[in-house]
Structure prediction request, 180 residues.
Amino acid sequence: MKKPSISAEKVLKLRERAKKQKPSFVRQESWRYKRLKENWRKPRGLDNKMRRKIKGWPRTVEVGYRGPKVARGLHPSGFKEVLVYNTEQLWQLDPKTQAVKIGRTVGKRKRARIIVEAKKRKIIILNFKEPKEVVKEEKELAEETEKKEAVEEEKAEEAKTEKEKPKPKRKRKRRGEEKQ
Prediction:
């Protein structure tokens, strides 16, 4: 039996509340040595005080600090993130609950197509700032290619007409004739 779904706002508030109660996990003795960063590393070693959870030492990462199950994998906007590499993958999405992240290796042209298609389907793109510029760039590229094609067609037509025209005969100059 499925439980009724909780709204995205409530889920995000729940996750935020759980996050506030969670301590900041730091690497053991990172406060003591400059060469050690604060990034979390699991404490290992027989006599390690953090591993043994001795009073007065910082907390270690445990399962109990995990966020609420309903909020896991959600973007701060409340949508579930889906990685997309082409326009066909957009058809499998639900615009109400899922949002798109365009793959890192996707090129400019395909990225522009994905953006246009997502706009049509009203899908939110998470890793894109200003869609207007990209759409403008795509239009400009299309216009430039059309202009290039038109210029090439004109050149081809001119070449055809030049071949069809009879070449004018040149008058030969005879020796001894003077220029006037």
